[in-house]
Amino acid sequence: MLKKTLLLTTLIACLQPALAKDEDPMARPLFLRGEMNNWEAPAAQQLAQQGELLTVQVALQASHGAYKFKIADEKWKADTTYGQFDPSAKVEAGKPVVVKAGWQWSDMKFTPPSDGQYRITLDRRDPQHIQVTVSPVG
Predict the structure, then answer these.
(1) Would you kindly state where each structural domain of the chain is located, as residue ranges?
(2) Which phi and psi (to 5°) does residue 29 adopt?
């Protein structure tokens, strides 16, 4: 009985950090999800920590027109699915837009002015004023 109790205690202790990570929205991995990747969450488009910001680079083509996208975790959890607060606004290169967490917010829309690599930056330093910026790389 003692062995079973120790085994169960050890198992719970090992699982606790993994479960806590899933419950903490700030610890969940986030991905660029949209028309550029069929709304999937590919490892290549996981946002990476850059100081206090999260960023990812992606190749976009001007001929595509407006790309619709969101930033979200793998499971589309409401507290880490970021969409545009103002559905009529468009994302412009280098200009931050306010986003909110939740499924009800609109897709962001960005039309690249030229073919190339673009950096998507998520700034969550102020939880009341979360922003996304799309900028050309280079």
Answers:
(1) 30-136
(2) -65, 140
Cβ neighbours around 105 below 10 Å, total: 17
Task: Give per-residue pLDDT as tens, 55-110.
Answer: 999 999 999 999 999 999 999 999 999 999 887 888 999 999 999 998 788 999 99
Q: How far apart are CA 113 and CA 104, in angstroms?
A: 28
Supply the DSSP string of 40-98, one letter for each residue.
---GGGB-EEETTEEEEEEEE-GGG-PEEEEEE-TT--GGG-EEESSTT--B-TT--EE
pLDDT in tens, 17-44: 544 445 888 899 999 999 999 999 999 9
HSE-CB at 78 with a 13 A cutoff on CA atoms is 3
- The sign of the dihedral angle between the CA atoms of 130, 100, 82, 107 is negative
CA-CA distance, 83 to 52, in Å (whole number)? Answer: 20
**DSSP-assigned letter for residue 111:** -
Encoding tokens for residue 138?
Answer: 């280079």
Identify how many contiguous H helices and E strands the chain contains and give both numbers. 1, 9
